[in-house]
Amino acid sequence: MLVVMQSHATEEQIREVCKRIESLGLKAHPMPGSLRTAIGITGNKGAIDLGILESLPGVVECIPVSKPYKLVSRDTKQEDSILRIPTPSGDVIVGGDKIALVAGPCAVETEEQCLAIAGRLKKSGVRLFRGGAYKPRTSPYSFQGLGEEGLKILSKVREKYGFGIVTEAIDSESLDLVEEYADVIQIGARNMQNFSLLKRAGRAKKPVLLKRGMSATLDEFLMAAEYVLSEGNYNVMLCERGVRTFSDFSRNTLDLAVVPAVKKRSHLPIFVDPSHGTGKRHKVLPLSRAAVAVGADASSSKFITSRTKRSPTACSPSSPRNSSPSPTKCAKSRPSSTAPSIDVNESELRQLGCPL
Amino acid sequence: MLVVMQSHATEEQIREVCKRIESLGLKAHPMPGSLRTAIGITGNKGAIDLGILESLPGVVECIPVSKPYKLVSRDTKQEDSILRIPTPSGDVIVGGDKIALVAGPCAVETEEQCLAIAGRLKKSGVRLFRGGAYKPRTSPYSFQGLGEEGLKILSKVREKYGFGIVTEAIDSESLDLVEEYADVIQIGARNMQNFSLLKRAGRAKKPVLLKRGMSATLDEFLMAAEYVLSEGNYNVMLCERGVRTFSDFSRNTLDLAVVPAVKKRSHLPIFVDPSHGTGKRHKVLPLSRAAVAVGADASSSKFITSRTKRSPTACSPSSPRNSSPSPTKCAKSRPSSTAPSIDVNESELRQLGCPL
Amino acid sequence: MLVVMQSHATEEQIREVCKRIESLGLKAHPMPGSLRTAIGITGNKGAIDLGILESLPGVVECIPVSKPYKLVSRDTKQEDSILRIPTPSGDVIVGGDKIALVAGPCAVETEEQCLAIAGRLKKSGVRLFRGGAYKPRTSPYSFQGLGEEGLKILSKVREKYGFGIVTEAIDSESLDLVEEYADVIQIGARNMQNFSLLKRAGRAKKPVLLKRGMSATLDEFLMAAEYVLSEGNYNVMLCERGVRTFSDFSRNTLDLAVVPAVKKRSHLPIFVDPSHGTGKRHKVLPLSRAAVAVGADASSSKFITSRTKRSPTACSPSSPRNSSPSPTKCAKSRPSSTAPSIDVNESELRQLGCPL
Amino acid sequence: MLVVMQSHATEEQIREVCKRIESLGLKAHPMPGSLRTAIGITGNKGAIDLGILESLPGVVECIPVSKPYKLVSRDTKQEDSILRIPTPSGDVIVGGDKIALVAGPCAVETEEQCLAIAGRLKKSGVRLFRGGAYKPRTSPYSFQGLGEEGLKILSKVREKYGFGIVTEAIDSESLDLVEEYADVIQIGARNMQNFSLLKRAGRAKKPVLLKRGMSATLDEFLMAAEYVLSEGNYNVMLCERGVRTFSDFSRNTLDLAVVPAVKKRSHLPIFVDPSHGTGKRHKVLPLSRAAVAVGADASSSKFITSRTKRSPTACSPSSPRNSSPSPTKCAKSRPSSTAPSIDVNESELRQLGCPL
Known about the structure:
The structure is a homotetramer.
Chain A: E1 2-5, H1 11-23, E2 27-32, E3 37-42, H2 50-54, E4 59-63, E5 83-85, E6 92-94, E7 101-104, H3 111-123, E8 128-130, H4 148-161, E9 164-168, H5 172-181, E10 184-187, H6 195-202, E11 208-211, H7 218-230, E12 236-240, H8 258-265, E13 270-272, H9 274-278, H10 281-294, E14 309-312, H11 325-333, H12 346-353
Parallel strand pairs in A: 7-8, 7-14, 8-9, 9-10, 10-11, 11-12, 12-13
Antiparallel strand pairs in A: 1-3, 1-4, 2-3, 5-6
């Protein structure tokens, strides 16, 4: 259910409608738009008496929303959501006509490794730094991440270079800490339907980057985001990272058609992660370009929704081209990550950094 | 790494080897077999000095295990694991030459509903009752289960009919309660790679039923079980419930070939859940029969280790054939479950209940 | 469109209705049932004047058939189709309450090889012998089959042991020859949507074994069969042989749920081919048993639709257990087949041969 | 096996080597490159005596090729293949740094329909016109194409507007006619492993556009092309058109990562068909842009070898936006095509027409 307010409705009137909705035992989600505010209602299990709401001052009409997702839907909010991620070097804008870039190592291994990568990324125009402190690993015997120690290293990267930090939370304990240390809370593909974690992220004060599950349908993907929004956190960014198919030449099949499909159904921004999507170095740059291209709006180049590409591990220990001493050293003390390491140089990143 | 003990090694000797392993900062997992005990070692990141261990009294040899899964592997334990699940009416055996049956409603809705279903199942020879108190739902607006209230209802079913109770835990909080109230802790398909939850289940005192993720490879499935065993809980049952494919005539594609594949690689018992696997009533019984058949060992009918799990709603409110008053009533007060409800009558269950 | 005749309608009346249908430029397909005959109409692009047909003597009613498949549909013919395949040793019945078995080598390589395999299969109760004379190979450089020479070898197997011969046709030229030499024309998975070939098979006088395409939906599978029936050949047997999915532990994912799904929608018999479906020897027997089990009708054992299992290459050259001299010799002169060779012994086949 | 000739080897020497190869019962495939010629050898089942060939004048060395595909491999020919398709208005270049566009109706329905579409496409810079005269249809009751009548209509389009004509052949009979009337012979996805048809196409004098099968792996795709080359026709263009996955929001999942993957392994040009790949109008333009972007070579913009194929029905009868009288009329006399009809206007095509 959606309550559409008049364009000149006052803050007071909006508050009144919300209060009335909550008095019915429901939850109100005011969604301000450029022209008017709409108020999403969730929690209703039966029919709601629309008369009560439609007669309130400032209300235009009540619209039943039939789609399974409500708050993420473009029916609820027609304009693209544009997120501002506060970082020490100013807000990073996600959405609109700029391309946001996220880059960094797969796993945080040492302070030296992270600072070295960050120094190089800084020059290429990347403003969001990602690296895993908590790693969801297929094997219980693989390196599971440095935990809070890793978050502290990321903090230093943040402090020294002014990056916004994106890092994954894998359960409610780690989410508490990620919320404290980082700027964006990542929910990984394996946890896309970990509904307890999604609800916890929905109560967080930081934006959420939600990765598509390996075999998630579009509806399931949007419903996972709906979990986060339904708890009150509207700062959600989606991320396509490849799905699982019979195709065996790449680790996953990057489903770029999901970008226009999401944009048709939802106002949320969507990222593409071509490094997990392909797992092969020589495919990252072509697919990053394709990711940028697929998001261009057909009717007007002004509405290019911004998408982010992650080019991980700019100088991972397992990369043969890298011979800087410190990461090599760290590889001895820490088990090397099993995820593929992809080396992308600065000029390549700079190429991508240019808005269309 | 696996330490193979002599067949006449004493308890004392086994304890000594374990103590020595732990003194090296590693974890020891003694796995008693009918002939001898093997001790799995996990936690080793580098090379272990085998000399120290091989020279201990009672040790035959140390074998490096190259597979990513160790404790679940048949290399570690050659005989099928046979689990005893204590219930008020005696142990239910899972593994060996009997077929265990699990049945019950999708979601616990009311005490009346559960007792009615339980009464009918009791007559059909089912000894494990399943029903969800915590429901992982695609939509945040769907009925999420009764929580602890549901667990209390399941307790009454347990008390009144002597069933062992199987129910799902979705996070560490619910796992604490499920461990307290139920006999088997179920980890659902969506949480198969929720590694924090798997570790918590590995520290539980109750057996774990681990369902295969919707797009989990066989290795990922076994590695998820390895997470549970690596924390010390060796009472794990696997469950095939269908995977996600292009095929559109059933909800999922039941991958029965995984049964002999698991049996070749692992000693763990494996269930099949044909109701989630197909989502269609007319396919449940044929596929249940196929599930029983696929587990029969080719060379000798004594080694049938496959077991079938039946989770269809024996008398769910949404079934048109059911006209008993109480479940109908409950459907009004509770949102009806969205999962397909499959009506299987008692004689059908009795048919399946007969061991081959 | 379906014209339902009265139960006591005469042959003459049925002929009259068919004649009238054809006079409208359409095609009539009389389908005799145990109670009455129905006449399927195909070729109608617009509306047909039902009045003309319904007023003819012997006609009960005309029913529009909305499904995309008509002649294969159970709406058109309620009873299971039971096929009689004439062989030198009498008719082999497919459908009903017996399990038909088909076995033989992947490719026909030499006369010695085929006669040796045939001799062993004869003892195990198999009555249909299959072997490829035309092999659809992924590589142009792989052995493409012996062609007509292979068909002549199969003829000798037929003559000497009384087997019915099942062999694949890959184009219209080979179909002409297969129709001449063999008893059942196989259309392989790669050609399931080779519509020219399907139409040619529909004009053949021999029964057709149609294998499901690697990524064919159920509707596409039934529509492919419809192509054959629509040309007048109603003797079609379907065959599930595994579909392509992300799952990597077996060559294909055997989709056994398709058996009850086909039986619900169609009257055609369905085979299961677990050797292509799994590609692994240790899975063939369990999955053959499962294939038999999945087809058993729940309510009455009288309606068990017969299904056939193919256990290929009872003594293929590449099988390590086989040491007979001639196949070994032939392996030198012929490139060995790339398809997996699975050795199933006679007692195993005999086990399967028993009807339920 | 590959015979590498000296850069200054004469035509005469090359002919000699080929003659010698053929005298060994093998097939020689001279592949001229910008620096030197390599001669591929196919048909060898055992070891070849390299000494004979390496001692011939002009030969540098003989290299064994281990990949299953040989002639399509970049090992055989390092430079991108650049095809020249002769058309009445001059050669259309496929490969290199231009983007070729192919557009036209799904099925040829009437002369008026085709001429109307062609007239609009002419203005947008498209130089290859495609339309189906032979339609491989899932249902035997769907419109199967106009056959030779359709080819004659395409001839008129060719004559009037100077387009090169691309149209599908579905069997050897239709291929004879397509070869006569059209400029490019299309092999559809359903026939990608119709090896008899591939061989026939390999003996054709016209270039071949080979579409990827719905569940073809990369190796199978390249091997299908190898079939065509192995018969002597080296003018092959590949085409990605989407694969079949669980994902249900689009008809197929466009696998754009196959473009860099093909380019790494093969010298053949590759098209992308986003209209079949997505089946949705609003996704065609974004995915066309992505297709162009994914083919751009990372290190140098001069080597863009990716090309985009656009096959949407520019003014199909079933498009709601189109109200021109003649296509509407034809829709009455011909069953409308079941394939999705996608309306793309001229300025959109012009946008794509610009090389990067």
